UniProtKB/TrEMBL annotation:
Major localization listed first in the record, in broad terms: membrane
Name of the protein: MFS-type drug efflux transporter P55
Domain Major facilitator superfamily (MFS) profile: 14-400
GO CC annotation, single: endomembrane system
Residue spans crossing the bilayer: 16-40, 52-72, 84-102, 114-134, 146-165, 171-191, 221-243, 255-277, 289-308, 314-336, 348-370, 376-397
Gene that specifies this protein: ymfD
GO molecular function: transmembrane transporter activity
Superkingdom, taxonomy of origin: Bacteria
Subcellular location: Endomembrane system
Length: 408
């Protein structure tokens, strides 16, 4: 395995490996989520705190990712993308499967937190290498494909994990060994990108555009803030929709699961729509639209009086959230120099997962201040609508060049 930076032209093979690698991040949570009730049932007789510890085993990796991702990016910049990706994939597989062999709940939680560190490295390096390998519209294409692949693979493994969990809560954890099959392809196909401030010589008008010679901090911070706020809003549906459905009298786990699945499908639709929306409205206009859709979906969810209204609201919300990550990620990639790209994408990953982690806390605080869960969600929706208006004004006063992905 070579770590010498080289100039090459990346193609479909490199793209397939990085897209599959990126999908490991969503698999890390959805594959074992369906067995949460079975794990609580298994550990409750010997551990009265099982209802508290088991959810932490499922969601704990998100906090680990948020805390470790910036360091993961630094390690990728310091020691090489390919090397760190392969080490992280190996750790992901072994740590992911280890809980199937453990009998102690606290040990399982500890391993899952370590597993989150491997997830952080995989996600950060895959996104960084996409930015390293491609430029311009090609980069945007792979950013979009990354989001779509994550959604599709996540949905597939959610079903597979649920099916295996019918037999034993331990079985889904063995699926984490599957990424070991990726390691030979990573070693053979991926290559360490050339990290240089000097762009390749352009030989035609269609050649790769010049790389930035310094970090665009304004664009960077705007992207971080957008994905952080967006993730707070995005996770309202999977976390709070079941509570609101129960309040409406919908207690069927099948119907509640269908609502969550509808949100995943809607986000996939949003991701597929994103290239057209971005080209039509520009990045600022797309930000305004996706935030407005998310806000409208939350308002509909909070005020819904029927299951059908909840589904419609979740679809509206999901379409907006499907456009969030690619529209936030692409400007961040473009704002970074090659030598800072790993660290920059690490902080992007950190803000993404931090938003997911604090979403229930934000809603809880809003609910306590506004007088209930419904009012708390409405308050958040109102603030997001205001944030959308700011992006809308930016789009109106300074229309984004269609081929540029910078948010400013």
């Amino acid at each position: 395995m070579t770590t010498t930076p080289v100039h090459r032209q990346a193609g479909a093979r490199e793209g397939a490996i990085l897209l599959l690698g990126s999908s490991l991040t969503i698999v890390g949570s959805v594959m074992v989520a369906p067995v949460l009730p079975r794990m609580i049932e298994a550990f409750a007789p010997t551990n009265p705190q099982a209802p508290l510890w088991v959810p932490l085993a499922i969601t704990g990796p998100a906090l680990a990712i948020a805390l470790f991702a910036p360091l993961a990016g630094w390690l990728a910049d310091r020691f090489g993308r390919k090397r760190m990706l392969m080490v992280a994939t190996l750790c992901y597989a072994l740590l992911g499967a280890l809980p199937a062999l453990l009998d102690g709940l606290t040990a399982i939680v500890g391993v899952r937190l370590l597993f989150g560190l491997a997830e952080a490295m995989v996600m950060t390096v895959c996104a960084t290498m996409i930015a390293d390998y491609w430029q311009g519209e090609q980069r945007l294409k792979y950013v979009n494909r990354q989001v779509v692949t994550i959604a599709v693979v996540g949905a597939v493994f959610f079903v597979i994990g649920g099916m295996l969990g019918e037999h034993s809560w331990r079985l889904p954890f063995y699926l984490y060994l599957l990424p070991l099959l990726l390691l030979p392809f990573m070693a053979r196909i991926l290559w360490e990108p050339a990290i240089s401030r000097t762009p390749p010589v352009q030989t035609s008008p269609q050649a790769t555009p010049a790389l930035p010679d310094r970090v665009n901090m304004t664009a960077l911070l705007a992207g971080y803030l957008l994905v952080g706020i967006g993730m707070v809003m995005s996770f309202v549906v999977p976390v709070q929709a079941p509570v609101l459905l129960v309040q409406l009298g919908v207690t069927s786990t099948t119907l509640i699961g269908l609502a969550t699945g509808t949100g995943l499908l809607a986000s996939l639709v949003g991701a597929l729509m994103w290239p057209l929306v971005r080209r039509t409205l520009g990045v600022r206009g797309c930000n305004a639209l996706l935030l407005l859709l998310g806000s409208a979906g939350l308002i509909g969810l909070a005020l819904a009086q029927s299951y059908a209204t909840v589904l419609v609201s979740i679809v509206i919300h999901g379409i907006g959230m499907g456009m969030l990550v690619p529209n936030a990620m692409a400007p961040v990639m473009n704002a970074l120099t090659p030598t800072h790209r790993g660290r920059g994408m690490g902080f992007f990953t950190a803000f993404l997962y931090l938003g997911q982690f604090i979403s229930p806390l934000v809603i809880g605080l809003a609910a306590s201040l506004a007088g209930g869960l419904t009012n708390g969600i409405l308050a958040l929706a109102g603030l997001v609508a205001l944030y959308a208006a700011i992006w809308g004004l930016g789009a109106f006063f300074r229309r984004q060049p269609l081929a540029n992905a910078s948010p400013l």
